[in-house]
Amino acid sequence: MVANDSIWPAATDPNSISSNFKANTTETDRLHVGDIKVDYQFPNGDRLFARESYQRRDLTAPSPGTRFIRIDDVNSAPRDHNTAIGYDHTFSQSMINTLRLGFNRFYTVTSGNDFQTQENQTLGIPNSVYPAFPATTGIANFEPGNIAVTGTQGWTDARRITNAYQLTDNFTMVFGKHTVTVGGDYRRLQASLTNADQNQSGEFDFSSDYTSSCVNQPNCATPSGGYPFASFLLGLPSSVKRGFVNTLPATRANLLAVYAQDDWRITEGLTLNLALRWDLITPPIDKANRRSNFNLQTGLLDMARDGNRSPNVDTYYGGYSPRVGFAYTPNHGLTAIRGAYGITHFPGNFGGMGGALERNYPFFQQFNVAQQTQYTPFATVAGEGLPGLTSPVISDNKIPPPPNTSVTAMPRNFQVDVATAWNVGIQQQLTQKSAFSLTYVGTKGTHLYRGRNIDVAQPGPGSLTTRRIYSSIAPNINDIEYRASDGKSIYHALQAQVTKATSYGLEGRIAYTWAKELDNTSIWNPLIDRLNWGVGINQAPDTPQSLIVTAIYELPFGRGRMFFSRTNGFVNTALGGWQFSTTTRAQSGMPLKFNAAYDNLNAGFTNRASITCPSVRVYGAPDRWFDTSCFTTPDLYQYGNSGYGRVRGPAYVNADLTLSKIFSLTEDTRLQVQADAFNLTNTPHYANPSTDCCTTNNSNFGKVTSTNGSPRQIQLGAHVNF
Q: Given the DSSP bridges, would you call strands 141-143 and 203-205 parallel, antiparallel or unpaired?
């Protein structure tokens, strides 16, 4: 693989040992969008409308250097459309009914740049390509340390389809001081997702274990030396992963909601909002019962069947969501005080509504072959190669998982996510054109979706095979993905905002947020859950401070303006009507997590680094973001104490500016010309520094080696509206 430049390109900077290849690639993105809408008003005042929107996109994302280098993007071809039909019926001046029918389709096919190549076979990797499974072509993900990863994202070379049918009806009646709305919403979801959780071309991970001083010494406490790339050159992986999609999923789910709301205007200055909603969100099923659930008592996979179509998962009927709010003004709107409290039930983005039991064995065959005895090689790339496709053995609707299978278990009492939100704020008019508001916002998340491998062991010596928690019922597997609704979060924020309506050609808004977010949804320790509690780093990153400034300024030139107000037509056309608009955003850096240099837990999950200083100094330089001397690898079989957020990454500051003008060509035709400057100040948007401890094992530790945004870009455009 390293004998020539066919996989990894030659360095463009041969004098550097890291970040030494630079290339400019051009993505081709063709987008076609179309909308059609019809409105009709009946003689009695009822209204009917129908709308169809269609989008076609073709994105080509080449890899830099060679087609075998992994990038964050993929080639994709979405074909999406949305249909809506609405009917509004007026019974009287105080009673109206709105009916909506909708259909939304998301369809896309993705592929990596190595798709349909035979590179794994060329490299001589056993069990690499299966002709009946085209996604097994290409090259595996080789991850040899600080070298560019090969292959493509594991979620690509796939088809994604989602159909959503929706029916909503609302009846509103006004009587006295009350405006009452009752209604219902029904949605039918259909989905099919054909990417495996593990790369179908395979994945080989490498560590320093097999080239360190501890190789073949399972109880070694302090390894020295070793390098992941050296282990790669020897062909000794630390883990081997591979997936097969042996089915065509057809997931189905129903979402039903009924609700009632009363907006009660008690006095001219006080309004009370009362509402109650009930949500029923059924567990997903498969059209052909192609689902299974790993049983933590028997060690077998229970297959779906009629009467148990979402195997061993019950429907949750407790989705009651009360809501209350108020608005009060003591002085006819100059001052407004508002507050609200409400509960919302909703399906998580991943793991609950889909991407779980339909992806279990034998329908998705996913394998994870990992080291069981510390510092002891267990396979070679050229010898054992990749895991192969297996044939399931079904007895009484149950299946024993084959060795090294990754399985998924979901508890019977799984339920959807719950968010409890509250806020109270005051808004004060400052002048006729400006206002100030100050609001406290809180949100508490409960029953949040979390997924983690629970088949791990307590830190200690010895082979993992017999020490794993579920080794007595499933001795041949090492990855039980437990997908439960046991996560929680808390968010507090103080939001301040100043707004200015248009006067003297200027309007704008300044918004500042001071916030704190804590959760346990980023799991590193599946044994001691309190160690997972900390500032958010994943789905809801903790961002202590955020500032957004927006402004639109009409330049004071041309007729009716401060300057050249009586100018002739040519000068007015050239100088008048121009406006600047700008958006500036600044926010705190994201919290960082620090992994230990090597696996010294021998427990089946990665340890955290330890911090030896009372506080870690942040230098803020790309080549030394923080004081790396404050970090060390914990003692043997001891957990690290670095937690989450002891150090933060680079802050984000960006300003965009637009200059635009609209020309009237005819009575019905307008031409808009526009110049956009993105990242006007050309401020570098640094990505987070490398946080894999420590300097002796990772030369990039504490260094920023990439950016998280584009340099200044200037774009010219024109739009014709007719």
A: parallel
